[in-house]
Amino acid sequence: MVLLSRLKIAKNMQYTHKFKNGFKMAKMTTTEIDRLIGQKIQQKRKELGYSADRLSEYVDISQPQLSRYERGANKINLSHLVAIANFLKTPISYFFSGCMEKSEWNSDELDRHWQELTSKQKALFVDLLKELRKS
Length: 135
Description:
InterPro entries: Cro/C1-type_HTH (IPR001387), Lambda_DNA-bd_dom_sf (IPR010982). This is Transcriptional repressor DicA. Pfam families: HTH_3. Residues 41-95 form the HTH cro/C1-type domain. The protein is mainly alpha-helical. Residues 1-25 have low confidence and may be disordered. Strands 1-3 form a two-stranded antiparallel ribbon. A two-stranded antiparallel sheet has the order 2-4. The chain has helices spanning 2-11, 30-47, 52-59, 63-71, 78-87, 107-116, 119-134, and strands spanning 14-15, 23-25, 28-29, 100-102. The chain has seven helices and four strands; from the N terminus they run H-E-E-E-H-H-H-H-E-H-H. The longest helix has 18 residues, at 30-47. It has two domains: 2-102, 434 Repressor (Amino-terminal Domain), CATH 1.10.260.40; 106-135.
């Protein structure tokens, strides 16, 4: 009984893991992440004008299974997601946008990096920032 309740808690726990590159998982449950990925699959498929039958045939899964993926009812198999991304000619990262959030810069860390730059590097960096704001 205790094991079962722990599994239920783990299934719906929120992901807030921090990663080295400054990104962390958004505060979403696994179910919400499954739904978001499924919605993105369906959105991209429809945007490109493909039927669910055609995509499921390419991925070699049943159409009902694809439907469950798109609704977020089932967790998607990673190899199936790769096949879907290839078929839709879409980077796999597209399906995870919205699942990751950029963590706030720590001002102390930013100051430390700035202090380590030479005067020439600082000038180049400021010029780069000005160009980025124009676009």
